């Protein structure tokens, strides 16, 4: 087959597809009441185990949304916990630097009077 013959076939096919789509777009719209009243004769009611089946697309969307939301919340909680741990570690290092008698378990230091005070 020659290239010009193949090109003609491709152009004719493409122009036919365009013509069909244009005629479908130019068709007049039917009224909403007319469309709603026409139910195909081959409709089949589907029953599930305990009654009629419904589209559970919203349920699946809710599940996916819940999983994504949960992942975001877990990541935020983890980030907050890491920041809190870093702040506590920084506080303990600061108190240990200021007071030689600092006890990190109780967050207190011993004063000259012998009593323990919280490090702030």
Automatic annotation (TrEMBL):
GO cellular component: membrane
Record InterPro entries: BA14K
Tagged with keyword Membrane: yes
Main location (coarse class): membrane
A molecular function GO annotation: carbohydrate binding
Subcellular location: Membrane
The organism's place on the tree of life at top rank: Bacteria
Record's keyword terms, sorted: Cell membrane, Lectin, Membrane, Signal
Signal sequence, renumbered to the chain: 1-26
Membrane topology, record value: Single-pass membrane protein
Transmembrane annotation, as ranges: none
Protein family (similarity comment): Belongs to the BA14k family.
Function: Has immunoglobulin-binding and hemagglutination properties, and can bind to mannose. Essential for virulence. May be involved in LPS biosynthesis or polysaccharide transport.
Protein name as annotated: Lectin-like protein BA14k
Source species: Bradyrhizobium sacchari
């Amino acid at each position: 087959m020659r290239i010009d013959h193949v090109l003609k076939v491709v152009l004719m096919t493409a122009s036919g597809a365009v013509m069909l789509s244009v005629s479908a777009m130019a068709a007049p719209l039917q009224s909403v009441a007319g469309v709603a009243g026409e139910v195909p004769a081959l409709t089949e009611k589907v029953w599930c185990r305990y009654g009629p089946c419904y589209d559970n697309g919203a349920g699946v969307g809710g599940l996916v949304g819940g999983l994504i939301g949960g992942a975001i919340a877990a990541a935020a909680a983890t980030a907050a916990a890491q920041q809190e741990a870093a702040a506590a570690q920084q506080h303990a290092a600061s108190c240990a630097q200021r007071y030689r008698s600092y006890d990190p378990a109780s967050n207190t230091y011993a004063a000259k009077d012998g009593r323990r005070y919280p490090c702030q």
